[in-house]
Amino acid sequence: MDTMTPQSRLHRALNLLKYISKPSPIVTIELDKNTYGLENAYTTFDRIQGTVIITVDSETPLENISITFEGTAKVSIGRETCTLSNTEATQTFLQLKQPVTRGIDSVPKILQPGCSYKLPFTFVVPQYLPCQSCNHNISCSDLKQAHLQLPPTLDDPKLGHGKRPTLDYVSSGKCHISYRVRVVLSKGSIPGTTRRTRLVDCAKSVRVLPISMHAPHPGLPIVSSDTYTQMEQSLSQGFAQPGLGELITEASHIPPISLHYPIDKDGAHTAVRLNLRFNPTIDAAPPQLKKASAKFQISTFYSPVPWEDYPSWTDRGLVNGWDRGAFTDTFPIMAFSMGSVQWVKHQDMGDEHRIQGHDGESLSDHTAPRNGSRSYYTASIVLPIVLPPRMTSIPTFHSCLISRTYNINLRLSFHTPKPALQTASTTIKVPLMLQYVSNNHHTSLVHEESDASDSTVMNVLPPPEYTATA
């Protein structure tokens, strides 16, 4: 029951108004300039150094100063219901704290006008996240390892899009990953309450592009159910005509494409080897390739509920559209005519088909060769894959809420042999993993120094669990 009189309520309201109306301190976050790379962009083991500058117009009591480096992921899913509600989730997966010395020689308890208080800070971009960052159910240990890798900046609205140096944006705006240096100044509790007052809460966003210090874990799958690296296709002479044979196209393993940091001016390069096999059903020559083209496919998966397995376009939650979201962009990267392909003819000994004799004895039948022919043809071609600098994107990653994957979609068109002389085509979808690697000794040197000194200038705080709102 409220026993306050109207006079006491008015007195409390006036005190609160006077308390709130005081001018707030002015806080500026200045980052030291990078000697290389993109502006305000950092990679693994880089030092994020700078200064926090505080000024006030009047005497201002100051109880606490917090300087942190934070990584946050946010996801929003629109549900098609009668209320058109959204499901949102926020996860602070990283929080490093800079100790601040208080006292006469540094920052006093009461800030004085006319003084400029400067607080230097140093953070080191870690390679791994704290284990507490991923505390949900997962399907395998490899996924846990992937979720504890530092994810890259993705579509941070605070960084601006006018001078975007990488394809880190998403067209839907439904998910983003951001990093920032955050400063919070607070003083005593509001009169009549126990809640501490925040004088200032400001932040400076930075871009993080983690590098790969080693090759991907051997058990880390990059092939999902929606990729196909082998295609079998029957070739025909036309309607109601006997088939010519079967063409099998298979892509050999693609090593991860490595992108140098700073970003390579010439783009990223790799090559795809395609192994071809033609099994004729009649006495026919193998087809001749006519044209090859490739498209670069970028896929982003997101969910307010942590992923328990690697995301895929065939995921049931994504198909239902309830608690999963995804989108993709495709860019053409090459197209050229093919010269003559050198086919090599092989003699097939045929599989031994077992037939049953009159006396029940199992016999070998060499008269039933595989695919109806004792010969087949093979060929191999190598297609160069070049990602132009404007398409140089962020590395492949899998985090608790957001993932980014890549594919190279290859399409081959060819002529069937005469007299059919028809045009046919086949397409395969090859998974691709992008990684950033250091192009100098900067990373190793910083790593050696960080073990000795950086632990004294920042503390790792257990990040809170992700929060979801419907």
TrEMBL record:
<dbReference type="InterPro" id="IPR014752">
    <property type="entry name" value="Arrestin-like_C"/>
</dbReference>
<dbReference type="InterPro" id="IPR039634">
    <property type="entry name" value="Bul1-like"/>
</dbReference>
<feature type="domain" description="Arrestin-like N-terminal">
    <location>
        <begin position="39"/>
        <end position="187"/>
    </location>
</feature>
<feature type="compositionally biased region" description="Pro residues">
    <location>
        <begin position="461"/>
        <end position="470"/>
    </location>
</feature>
<dbReference type="Pfam" id="PF00339">
    <property type="entry name" value="Arrestin_N"/>
</dbReference>
<protein>
    <recommendedName>
        <fullName>Arrestin-like N-terminal domain-containing protein</fullName>
    </recommendedName>
</protein>
<feature type="region of interest" description="Disordered">
    <location>
        <begin position="447"/>
        <end position="470"/>
    </location>
</feature>
<dbReference type="InterPro" id="IPR011021">
    <property type="entry name" value="Arrestin-like_N"/>
</dbReference>
